[in-house]
Input
Amino acid sequence: MALRRVATTVVEVYKMHQKIVVVDERLVLLGSLNVLSQSDSREVMLVMQGKCFARKLLQHERAQTFAHPPACGRCGGTQVDLRRTKAQGWYWRCYAPTPQPKPNGKPDRCGWTSQVDAGRLNGSRRPAGKVRSRDQ
Ligand SMILES: [Zn+2]
Output
């Protein structure tokens, strides 16, 4: 991934459609543009400068909590992405392929998960997630 060559931290988020880039906690790019893969669609991207807005956005997106994906607790790999469901809340999941494919020939995935305590934002009605792991 090209982004890993220029960014110190890259966290993959499964099924995330929002496009947000925050540079040095002061420059924000926010919109629908796929910054690294734009081709021929019409998109929009706002550019805003300001430390307060950048920090609020990082707080809202729980950047501190999500900035350090763990190594997989099963295979030790680093192919771990961040996922969220209504029932389970935020969790890390290892998508590293296993040595043995599925019977249908498709790659099987490690599948290790670990719950993330995403905390609670000010004004949020959602309770903080419980911390647990399926494979420890
Ligand atoms: Zn794994």
User: Anything to note?
Assistant: Residues 3-65 form one domain. The CA atoms of residues 75 and 110 lie 7 Å apart. DSSP finds three helices and six strands in the chain. The beta strands are 19-23, 27-31, 45-49, 80-85, 89-94, 113-115.
